[in-house]
Write a structure and sequence with these properties.
This protein is 49% helix and 15% strand. The protein contains 12 helices and 8 strands. α4 runs antiparallel to α10. The model has no long low-confidence stretch (mean pLDDT 90).
C-alpha cells in the first residue's frame, strides 16, 4: 500500500512536469520495435509502446529476431509473445518473429551483424517504416544479443541504408542502481534524457499484465523486476544521427 502510494505521488509530480516528451514535428505513423527475444517488448519497451499508441496513434510493428529457445521453450514462447502483444495492443499481423539458425537465443553465440542488418533492412522497406526503436549499445542488460541488434541497426544508419525519412531511436541503458529504483528515477530521467515516457502505477499494470503472459519466464526474480524496474514505468530514449553513431564507434575503438 505504501509502495503504491509512493509511486503514485511520483507520478503526480511527473504530470506536473511532462509525462511524454517526443519530437513534435516527426512523422511517425508506422513505428517498428526491434527486439532480440520474446518478452523484451514487455521487460524493456512497454512504456514507450503504450505511450506511442496512446499519444500518437501510430501503427506499431514488432520484429523479434529469435523465438527464445535457450531453455527449449521456443514453441511455447512464440504463443506467449502473441498473447503479450495482444495485451499491449500490437495486432497479430504486425508481429514478425524470426526462427533463424544463425540467430539462436544464446548469449554465448555471436550474432552476425550483417545477418541482422539484412533482416532489418528488408523489414523496414517492406513495411514502409518511419521510425525504428531498439536497444542502445549497452542493450539495457549488456546481453550480447541485444547489443548485436544495436550494431546492426546503427550500421544501416551509418551507411545510409535506412530510408531517408526513417528515424532511429535507441532505448537508454542506465546503471544498476537507477534500473531498480522504479519511479524514483523520474528526476534523473528528466534531467539527463532527451525524450521520455512515464506511466502511472495503474497504466503500468497493462505492461505487467502483458509480461505475465510470458508464463515460462516468470521466475521469482522477474516478479521482483516487474514491480521494481524503472523499465516497467519509464523509458527514456535518444534520437540517433550519423554523427552520434560515429562518435560512439570512435569511443568504443579507443577502448
Amino acid at each position: 500500500m505504501i509502495y503504491t502510494e509512493l509511486l503514485d505521488s511520483f507520478h503526480n509530480l511527473s504530470i506536473r512536469l511532462e509525462y511524454f516528451k517526443w519530437p513534435s514535428k516527426e512523422s511517425m505513423d508506422r513505428v517498428l520495435f526491434i527486439t532480440s527475444h520474446p518478452d523484451d517488448e514487455c521487460m524493456f519497451f512497454g512504456p514507450v509502446i503504450h505511450s506511442i499508441a496512446q499519444n500518437l496513434g501510430s501503427q506499431i510493428y514488432l520484429l523479434c529476431l529469435s523465438h527464445g529457445n535457450y531453455e527449449k521453450h521456443g514453441c511455447k514462447r512464440r504463443s506467449e509473445l502473441w498473447e503479450a502483444c495482444k495485451v499491449l495492443g500490437i495486432p497479430e499481423e504486425n508481429i514478425t518473429l524470426f526462427n533463424c539458425s544463425q540467430l539462436p537465443d544464446d548469449p554465448n553465440i555471436e550474432w552476425k551483424v550483417q545477418t541482422i542488418a539484412n533482416i532489418i533492412s528488408n523489414t523496414v522497406d517492406s513495411l514502409d517504416i518511419q521510425a525504428v526503436i531498439t536497444f542502445d549499445r549497452e542493450g539495457v542488460s549488456q546481453h550480447p544479443n541485444h547489443t548485436a541488434v544495436y550494431y546492426a541497426t546503427a550500421s544501416l544508419c551509418l551507411n545510409s541504408l535506412l530510408p531517408k525519412d526513417c528515424k532511429l531511436f535507441t532505448l537508454d541503458s542506465v546503471n544498476t542502481f537507477r534500473k531498480y529504483i522504479s519511479l524514483l528515477d523520474l528526476l534523473l530521467t528528466y534531467l539527463l534524457s532527451t525524450y521520455w515516457c512515464v506511466l502511472s502505477f495503474e497504466e503500468a499494470s497493462n505492461i505487467r499484465n502483458a509480461m505475465r503472459k510470458h508464463h515460462s519466464q516468470m521466475k521469482w526474480f522477474r516478479w521482483l523486476y516487474i514491480f521494481c524496474s524503472r523499465y516497467m514505468f519509464i523509458n527514456s530514449l535518444r534520437k540517433m544521427t550519423i554523427s552520434d553513431i560515429e562518435l560512439e564507434f570512435q569511443i568504443e575503438d579507443s577502448h
